[in-house]
Design goal:
The protein is of the alpha/beta class. The protein has one domain. The protein contains 11 helices and 8 strands. The strands form 2 sheets. A 5-stranded parallel beta sheet has the order 5-4-1-6-7, sandwiched between helices. It has a 3-stranded antiparallel beta sheet with strand order 2-3-8, with no helix packed on it. Helix 5 packs across helix 9.
């Protein structure tokens, strides 16, 4: 059986956190009586507004199971990981994270910008502002042939990166008609998935999916796809239930079922 390989967008990882940490009350015996103390626990998040997004979240437990069974290979890249580096991590990797027991396979970004940013300190390099600036102000504007000629003997790119850099026209084609920073960021991830030969770019951004498939009508060897659409293509009609389906307070040591 051949496994489908998917590059998983950051928004999928966020929506996969179906629970949140909260503080609850517990009675304890104290000095011959009882008193209430605060105790850390968790509860399921309230259902997200909007039928479409709720449908995507409901599909994620099934996708996690298919990955555990080896039918799907879930991938990430360093550029996707940078997006969540300075934000709140929520319950990622712990109780309430649908993918907490899954190890994502790493794929290289289409072009590794670290080769072009050696003088930038890491915190700035990893910031979302620097990331988007590099996509918009460099990759979308640079004359790649002139740049490579100018830096010949000084910039030694791996063959993978050099081939993609010489084909920046493809990234620009994907970015056609995209306006927001988030969509240009996703265009880079889609390009990364494509040059790594992956089957899909899994995202919960409906507008981005429509922009590159319906509006731009691009020919894509690696199309963007939503979680619910992926299950439909796999012939799965009923998704697995959410492991935490209500907002009841649970102690940290309670099983998540």
């Amino acid at each position: 059986m051949t496994s489908l390989k998917l590059l998983v967008d950051r928004n999928i990882r966020v929506h996969a956190q179906i629970a949140e940490f909260v503080t609850g009350k517990q009675e304890v015996n104290w000095a011959g009586g009882t008193t209430e103390v605060d105790i850390l626990g968790y509860r399921g998040k309230k259902p997200r507004q909007g039928e479409w997004l709720s449908k995507q979240i409901s599909a994620l437990p099934t996708i996690a199971r298919l990955a555990r069974e080896g039918r799907l290979v879930l991938c990430t890249s360093r550029e996707i990981q940078f997006e969540g580096m300075f934000g709140a991590i929520g319950t990622q990797g712990s109780i309430g994270d649908v993918f907490r027991d899954h190890e994502f396979q790493h794929v290289p970004p289409a072009v590794d910008r670290s080769y072009f940013s050696a003088s930038v300190n890491f915190n700035k390099y990893a910031s979302g502002e620097e990331q988007v600036k590099w996509y918009k102000d460099f990759l979308l504007k640079v004359d790649e042939s002139a740049f490579l000629e100018k830096t010949k003997g000084h910039l030694e790119l791996p063959k993978f990166d050099q081939a993609n850099f010489e084909n920046l026209g493809r990234f620009r084609e994907i970015c056609r008609n995209l306006n927001s920073d988030d969509q240009i960021r996703d265009a880079f991830h889609l390009w990364t998935a494509e040059v790594n030969g992956l089957n899909y770019f899994l995202t919960a951004d409906k507008r981005f999916i429509n922009a590159v498939t319906v509006t731009a009508k691009l020919e894509l060897s690696t199309p963007p796809i939503s979680a619910s659409s992926l299950l439909e293509r796999l012939g799965i009609k009923e998704p697995d239930p959410l492991p935490i389906g209500d907002q009841r307070f649970r102690f940290l040591f309670e099983p998540d079922n």
